[in-house]
């Protein structure tokens, strides 16, 4: 019975809100936290709709009764005041009960959310930057600590604890299909526990205006079965693949001689910058520039040649390359699986 009302509204809502389904929707939950929140959304919306209808009826009824009273101006209704007082008292009582009930529901939902991460199997530190996400996997063994960017792999069906902070301004981390949103605040650590019920890719978006490229600050949770996740982590810990083809070799040399190394790190090479995304396995990611472009040879070249055209205001500068040089650098980066 408790779930009947929200289920009815959810069913009606699904018909009208087909556009809200998919890999980035709070109304299409794919994990326990998002399910709890979606249930709350539907219950609140459903109950408020019922209250709205009742208020409209309460408004219309006296108007109709007044019209009838005017037809018989001499009729006296002695009990009218008592009845009206009773209706007002009942309405006040109902309003109080609804407010207290909804507050309790929120409270218990919060407790459910807090319990999700109590047995978290993995801790990932997510740091917001203008305009990308630094992702660091914590581990008791220092050699297993891993830093990557923008895409967060997690084991499906297992709770994961995210530690959220920021390097510059306030950002907000929001993967609608998996959990509610939480701010990333400079100098402060917020904790968000997530769990994906099934393997899949869930898109997230910075949800706090943080500057010119706020809209191009996407992120992805990639939930995989445990074995696949472990294999991914082990792969990512490896140093970058050494180039074999001549063009890629030339590309590596160019990369290391140009200013790229001031900002980017490529494991196994002297490039050790940490102010921009780690590129050790850049080609294993699905997107470039925090979800702005899909990963492809053409987009890699476009991004290096014209970063300010693609993402105006970002900190990626134009590094002058000739056509051949650009091809070589792209060939090298493309090999960093
Ligand atoms: Cu980061 Cu908006």
Radius of gyration, CA atoms, in whole angstroms: 28 Å
Element pattern in H and E: HHHEEEEEEEEEEHHHEEHHH
Bound molecules: dinuclear copper ion
Give the averaged pLDDT, no decimals. 90
Describe the structure.
The chain has nine helices and twelve strands. The chain is an alpha+beta fold and 337 residues long. It folds into three domains: 26-68 and 78-117; 121-233, Immunoglobulin-like, CATH 2.60.40; 246-333, Immunoglobulin-like (Sandwich), CATH 2.60.40.420. The strands form four sheets. A five-stranded mixed beta sheet has the order 3-2-1-5-8. Helix 5 (246-257) crosses helix 9 and helix 7 packs across helix 9 (323-334). The two termini are 52 Å apart. The mean pLDDT is 90. The structure holds dinuclear copper ion.
Question: Can you lay out the helices and strands and say which pair or pack?
Answer:
Layout: H1 4-16, H2 32-71, H3 80-116, E1 122-129, E2 132-137, E3 146-149, E4 151-155, E5 160-166, E6 171-173, E7 182-184, E8 190-194, E9 200-205, E10 218-224, H4 226-237, H5 246-257, H6 260-263, E11 287-288, E12 293-294, H7 297-305, H8 307-310, H9 323-334
Parallel strand pairs: 1-5, 4-10
Antiparallel strand pairs: 1-2, 2-3, 5-8, 6-7, 9-10, 11-12
Helix pairs in contact: 1-2, 2-3, 5-9, 7-9
The protein binds dinuclear copper ion.
């Amino acid at each position: 019975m408790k779930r009947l009302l929200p289920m009815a509204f959810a069913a009606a809502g699904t018909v009208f809100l087909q556009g809200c389904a998919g890999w980035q929707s709070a109304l299409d939950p794919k994990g326990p936290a998002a399910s709890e929140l979606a249930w709350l959304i539907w219950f609140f919306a459903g109950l408020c709709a019922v209250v709205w209808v009742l208020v409209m009826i309460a408004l219309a009824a006296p108007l109709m009764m007044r019209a009838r009273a005017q037809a018989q101006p001499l009729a006296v209704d002695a009990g009218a005041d008592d009845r009206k007082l009773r209706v007002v008292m009942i309405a006040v009582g109902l309003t109080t009960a609804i407010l207290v009930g909804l507050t309790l529901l929120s409270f218990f939902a919060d407790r459910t959310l807090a319990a999700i991460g109590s047995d978290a199997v993995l801790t990932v530190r997510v740091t917001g930057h203008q305009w990308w996400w630094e992702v660091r996997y914590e581990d008791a063994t220092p050699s297993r600590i891993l830093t990557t960017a923008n895409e967060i792999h997690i084991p499906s069906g297992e709770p994961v604890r995210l530690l959220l902070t920021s390097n510059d301004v306030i950002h907000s981390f929001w993967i609608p299909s998996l959990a509610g949103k939480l701010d990333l605040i400079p100098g402060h650590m917020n904790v968000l526990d997530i769990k994906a019920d099934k393997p899949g890719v869930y898109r997230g978006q910075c949800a706090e205006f943080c500057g010119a490229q706020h809209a191009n600050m996407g992120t992805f949770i990639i939930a995989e079965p445990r074995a696949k996740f472990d294999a991914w982590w082990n792969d990512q810990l490896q140093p970058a693949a050494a180039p074999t083809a001549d063009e890629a070799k030339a590309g590596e040399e160019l990369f290391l001689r140009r200013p790229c190394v001031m900002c980017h790190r490529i494991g196994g090479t002297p490039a050790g910058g940490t102010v921009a995304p780690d590129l050790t396995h850049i080609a294993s990611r699905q997107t470039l520039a925090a979800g702005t472009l899909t990963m492809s040879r053409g987009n890699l070249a476009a991004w290096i040649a014209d970063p300010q055209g693609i993402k105006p205001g970002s900190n990626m500068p134009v590094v002058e390359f000739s056509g051949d040089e650009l091809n070589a650098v792209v060939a090298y980066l493309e090999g960093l699986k």
